[in-house]
Write a structure and sequence with these properties.
By secondary structure, the chain is of the alpha/beta class. The chain contains 16 helices and 13 strands. Strand 11 and strand 12 form a beta hairpin. Helix 10 packs across helix 16. The longest helix is centred in the middle third of the chain and has 20 residues.
Length: 415
């Protein structure tokens, strides 16, 4: 079980995510959208999605077709990830999808892995036990201490999201122990404007809950996050001040003997120190959209990635590849797939090819298109670029100034 890097917070329609690379952070295959939700999440990893009153669920025939498409991927290992909304509110499709996919992939001599992203606020012990026995990797969200997590992810029933999440986490861990599995529930953090004041409290919350890794993520101005940017958003400089305060805290703790790492920094350090290309689709050039992952919405529409699906929820289907009645080949050779791959190859982009950081960096055409109206950025100070360059500048400065002890620590983070 790995900490899930593609995670989105609940608060929108369900989707199933398929990634096509055995090393991809979004596993190979297709996204399934199981769209019920029980929270009014103020954000998602990249944005908040629709808050519609009617929350359709993925029907079994759509799920079946999505799995069939995923099995056509040329890779030998595919991961199917169930997202939401809250996917555990659609147990019938979950219980159908996992055994059906195992059967289909087994016939083709391929391996299929499964992941589910859940807010753990409505844990069904029987369903969680079944998911764990079936080998489904469980990931969740932890934004920080109780007050911050509750503020970011209020429940419709007005109960404490944090308290219910905590109970759900303990249930999962007890079930892992019951079955003798040495596994962990992956957790990811999303940063809102309110988060900026609590870097140390966020670190403490993770350590207090037994985590030895954080995955700190900025909001991306898509969906409801774009509509409410003045309330939840921030500048790249504000985010970098927060993020580097967390890294400073973690490095101090590591030197004092408490080993806690941060995933974004670890990914960049692997690329810098080990020349590792890294499987995470969002850190690739070109990015993994369409060729490394697909997002299947509850209505059977298929998009390049979850960001493309979010944009469609805002009324713009530019990144639609097709639907579940298309073949895999038709989807990956669609105009949207071609355009996204071309626009995310940093070695050929005017503002990227001459940048000293381009061997370690990446771009997201969906975010660029959403903010600038073009797949290729014309703004050297765009939000994504400023954050990426700021993180890389921080890490190179630490490498340059590091003594032997810190250099060894940075290599440990890279490994």
């Amino acid at each position: 079980h790995r900490s899930h890097s593609s995670h989105r917070s609940g608060g929108g329609s369900h989707s199933s995510h398929v990634s096509h690379s055995s090393h991809s952070s979004h596993s190979s295959g297709s996204h399934s959208n199981h769209s019920s939700h029980n929270s009014h999440s103020n954000h998602s990893n990249h944005s908040s999605v629709s808050r519609a009153e009617v929350n359709p669920k993925t029907p079994k025939p759509t799920c079946k077709k999505a799995i069939d498409i995923a099995s056509e991927s040329p890779t030998s290992i595919v991961t199917i990830e169930f997202q939401g909304g809250e996917p555990t509110l659609n147990p019938e499709v979950l219980r159908f999808a996992v055994p059906y996919a195992k059967q289909v992939f087994s016939r083709k001599g391929k391996q299929v892995n499964f992941a589910i992203v859940t807010n753990l606020t409505v844990p069904d012990p029987d369903l969680l036990d079944w998911l764990i026995r079936e080998g489904v990797s469980i990931s969740t969200s932890l934004d920080g201490h109780r007050e911050l997590h509750n503020s970011n992810r209020p429940l419709k029933n007005h109960l404490s999201t944090f308290d219910q999440w905590e109970a759900g986490l303990q249930l999962c861990r007890s079930l892992y122990e019951k079955h003798g599995y040495e596994c962990e529930v992956g957790a990811i953090q999303t940063t809102t404007r309110q988060s900026l004041a609590y870097p140390h409290e966020i670190v403490n919350a993770y350590i207090e809950h037994g985590y030895h890794n954080l995955y700190i993520r900025p909001l991306t101005p898509l969906g409801c996050a774009a509509e409410e940017w003045q309330q939840v958003g921030y500048t790249p400089q504000e985010y970098l001040c927060f993020y580097t305060a967390i890294l400073d805290d973690l490095f101090q703790r590591c030197k004092a003997g408490t080993i806690v790492t941060e995933s974004t920094a670890s990914i960049y350090l692997r690329r810098i120190l080990l020349q590792d290309s890294v499987g995470h689709t969002e850190f690739r050039s070109p990015c993994g959209a369409a060729v490394g992952q697909m997002a299947v919405n509850y209505d059977g529409q298929i998009y390049t990635c979850d960001e493309g699906r979010m944009l469609a929820n805002m009324g713009d289907s530019t990144f639609r590849l097709g639907d579940v009645d298309n073949t895999y080949e038709e989807l990956v050779t669609s105009p949207a797939a071609h355009a996204t791959c071309t626009a995310s190859c940093v070695e050929t982009l005017p503002l990227c090819c001459g940048c000293v950081y381009h061997p370690f960096c990446s771009v997201c055409p969906v975010v660029t298109y959403s903010s600038e109206g073009d797949l290729v950025s014309h703004d050297i100070h765009n939000y994504h670029c400023e954050i990426s360059k700021g993180i890389l500048q921080y890490l190179f400065r630490r490498l340059f100034d590091a003594d032997e002890e810190e250099l060894e620590l940075l290599h440990k983070w890279a490994r």
